[in-house]
Amino acid sequence: MTILDELFENQPIMAILRNMDPERSVRLSRTAWQLGISMVEVPIQTPDAVPSLEAVLAAGREEGRPVGAGTVTSVDQVELCEELGVAFTVAPGLDADVVAASERVGVPHLPGVATATEVQHAVRLGLQWMKAFPASLLGKDFFGAMSGPFPQVNFVATGGMSARNAGEFLDAGVRCVAVGSALEDEQQLPLLAELIGR
User: What is the pTM of this model?
Assistant: First the structure.
C-alpha cells in the first residue's frame, strides 16, 4: 500500500481551500475535519498563498490531520513543500520534472490529467493516483472509459465539484471528489456529511 493509498483510504471527499487568507483557511479546515473530511489541500499558485498553507499545516499538526499543497507546478515548489512538511502535493497538469522531484524528496504527488495520453504517461512514470481536471468538463463517463485500459489508476475528481454532483462521480468509480466552496454553503454541509458516511 502506498502513502496515497493510506491517505485516501475511506476518504471520498477532499477539501480545497483556494485564494483564502490564513484565518479563513484554518476555519474551513476545521469545518472539514469536524465533518469527517481528513484530506485538506491548500493551493500555492502564488507566493502570497504560502502563509495560508503554513497556517493550515500548523492547525493540522495540532489535530493530527494530513495537509497537502496544491497547484505545485515547479521543482522549487516541491522543495518548499518538503521543507514545510506537507503530506502530499497536487498539480493541475502532468510534469515529469515535478514528479521526479517529488519522488526525490519523498512527498507523494498527484498530477493532473485530462486525456488517455496523460494517464498513460503518468502510469509510465510510476504513478497510480491522479487528479482528473477539470472533472466537471470531462464528465463522469470519462472515468468509466479510463477504467478499461487503466484499471490500476485511482482518480480524484477536481474542478466544478460540489456536494450536489459528487455522488454521481463517486458512483462512476472516482476514489475521491475535491470540493471547495461547498464548505461555506450551509445547504451543502449535510450533503457532504452523507457522502462521507456512505
Answer: 0.95
Tell how far CA 72 is from the center of its chain. 11
SS3 91: coil
- The DSSP annotation for 110-124 comes to E-EE-SHHHHHHHHH
CA 81 vs CA 59, 63, 76: distances in Å: 16, 19, 9
| Banded pLDDT at 3 (limits 50, 70, 90) | very high
- Return d(Cα 40, Cα 181) in angstroms, integer: 13
Q: Which residues pair with 112 in a beta bridge?
A: 131
The torsion region of residue 159 among left (phi > 0), alpha (psi -120 to 50) and beta comes to left
Distance CA 129, CA 82 (A): 19
Estimate to the nearest angstrom the gap between the alpha carbon of 183 and the chain centroid. Answer: 15
- Written as nine digits, the cell of 158 is 477536481
**If one looks up domain 11-197 in CATH, what number appears?**
3.20.20.70
Please tell me the predicted confidence (pLDDT) of residue 183: 85
Residues 6+ apart with CB under 8 A from 117: none
